[in-house]
Design a protein that fits this description.
Strand order of the largest sheet: 1-6-5-4-3-2
Helix content: 40-55%
CATH class: Alpha Beta
Number of domains: 1
Shape: globular
Largest sheet: 6 strands, mixed
Length: 144
C-alpha cells in the first residue's frame, strides 16, 4: 500500500519524527508491505510481529508507547479507536501517540460496505474541535 494522505492531530506526526524516528520508519515500511492479500487482520498481525516486539492489545499494536490501529473493516471501530481507546491508553500512560491507518475513500468504495475511511475519520476529528480527542494522533490514508 502507499501512504496517500496524513493528518497530524496534536502534533502526532511531529512527535514521531522527533522522538521515534526509527519506529515511524518501521510503521511506514509495514504500510508499504501491506498487499490486498495481507489485509486480513491475521496477516497484518504477522507483519507487525515480524518487525519486532509489537504486542497486540485490544486490536492495537503497541511498541515504545506508540499505538497503531489498522482499520480495514467497520466504521464504528475507527471512531471508537480514535475517540475512546487512544484516549484511554494515553490517559493511563500506556501510549504517547496513536496512529490510525485507514483506506482513503477511493479505495473504500471497492471494499465491503461499512468500512471506515481516512476522510471520514479526519472529518470526525475536525468536527469535534481542536481539543477532542486530547491525544496526539497521526491518521494515515492508504491506497493500493
Amino acid at each position: 500500500m502507499k501512504i496517500i494522505r496524513k493528518y497530524s492531530h496534536f502534533y502526532g506526526e511531529e512527535y514521531l519524527l522527533v522522538h521515534q524516528k526509527e519506529l515511524y520508519k518501521e510503521i511506514t515500511d509495514i504500510i508499504e508491505e501491506i498487499t490486498p492479500e495481507k489485509m486480513m487482520l491475521k496477516s497484518l498481525r504477522e507483519l507487525f510481529h515480524e518487525r519486532g516486539l509489537w504486542t497486540k492489545r485490544s486490536e492495537f499494536f503497541i511498541k515504545n508507547k506508540i499505538a497503531v490501529g489498522v482499520q480495514l473493516n467497520k466504521s464504528l471501530n475507527a471512531i471508537y479507536n480514535t475517540f475512546v481507546k487512544h484516549l484511554l491508553f494515553y490517559s493511563n500512560g500506556f501510549i504517547n501517540v496513536g496512529v490510525e491507518i485507514l483506506p482513503i475513500k477511493k479505495m473504500q468504495l471497492n471494499m465491503s460496505s461499512g468500512a471506515a475511511y481516512y476522510e471520514g475519520a479526519v472529518y470526525n476529528i475536525l468536527r469535534h474541535g481542536r481539543s477532542d480527542p486530547p491525544v496526539p494522533l497521526l491518521i494515515v490514508g492508504i491506497e493500493s
